Amino acid sequence: MPDHDPGATGAVMFVNRFTVHASPEEFEEAFARTSEFMAGRPGFLRHTLSRHVDRPGHYVNVAEWEDAESFRAALAHPGFGPHAAGLRALSTSEPALYETRRTRVADRPAHRERA
């Protein structure tokens, strides 16, 4: 599949880097509750929480939203405050919102080892 320029779609990516000062399990449980809340908000498409391979207390969340307005409405929802406070109690973060400008997928299927 060739490049795709989604400029007309208005899609945005929310990227948030976390440095966790609690146990990874505790953070991941709190994040899972936040994930459930966000998944129910209008405009939410998907997210991926990833943990650093060599530094287990470092995470990044990448979330895709239909548009910036939907994302901002989710943050303004009264139910979001407790989730944000819970994550802040366990970590520090560096949040940022980005406009999607270009997406590329591989020209070939993913390589899989054969048995």
What is the element layout, followed by pairings?
Layout: E1 12-20, H1 24-39, E2 44-51, E3 58-65, H2 68-76, H3 80-90, E4 91-99
Antiparallel strand pairs: 1-3, 1-4, 2-3
Helix pairs in contact: 1-3
Describe the 3D structure:
The longest helix is centred in the N-terminal third of the chain and has 16 residues, at 24-39. It is built from three helices and four strands. Strand 2 and strand 3 form a beta hairpin. With 115 residues, it is an alpha+beta fold. The model has no long low-confidence stretch (mean pLDDT 90). It has helices at residues 24-39, 68-76, 80-90, and strands at residues 12-20, 44-51, 58-65, 91-99. Helix 1 runs antiparallel to helix 3. A four-stranded antiparallel β-sheet has the order 2-3-1-4.
At a glance:
This protein has 115 residues and is an alpha+beta fold.
Q: Tally the beta strands.
A: 4
Please state how the strands of the largest beta sheet are arranged side by side.
2-3-1-4
Helix percent reads: 25-40%
DSSP summary: helix tally: 3
Cα gyration radius (Å): 16 Å
Indicate the proportion of strand residues. 25-35%
Q: Tell me about the biggest sheet?
A: 4 strands, antiparallel
State the distance separating the first and last CA atoms: 28 Å
Which consecutive residue ranges, at least 5 long each, have pLDDT under 50? Answer: none
